[in-house]
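Checklist before submission:
- one chain only
- standard amino acids only
- sequence pasted in full

Submission:
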Amino acid sequence: MRKLIIFLHTSLDGYAAGPNGEMDWIKFDDTLFDFVGDFTEQADAALYGRVTYDMMEGYWPTAGDQPNASKHSRHHSSWYNRVEKVVVSESLQADSSTKRTVISGDLKGNIEKLKSMPGQDIILFGSPSIVRQLEEHNLIDDYWLMLNPVILGSGISLFARDITKIDLELAAIKQFPCGVAALNFKKKNQ
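Returned file contents:
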């Protein structure tokens, strides 16, 4: 069974973005990029909500081709172009030329089917609204929360306020020079 792994930046007070979707508070460095790059090598599918997919699609297909592209940009662009992109959307259409599959109904059934198919892990970057829907159905196997040293006070919450309890266990903590602490939580008895 394939694992569904989420990577989300969060503020100390549990927001994945500012009130208007701002993400200018998120910290990165090369060590963090390399760390996430190790996980992308173990995944052959990326899961996105429509907004995050549009942002990714607008940048990553050609990011590695730029003359001043960083090692991370070249690596992630190459990965992005070769993996299946699964997008949760009611209006987008599938496109085999870009390896885009669309889920437009029955999120639970479609994700369970995707997880049961042969292949490597499935990674979800961002997309807090999709994370909340996946939590509702207890479909996330592995949480990697990138805890940023900031309190936003308001914004787009990482977790649904009416979520049913999900028991997790802390599996790892890694600190990065930029001040971010990566916290890995897994479902209990996994």
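Reviewer check: The chain is about 30% helix and 30% strand.
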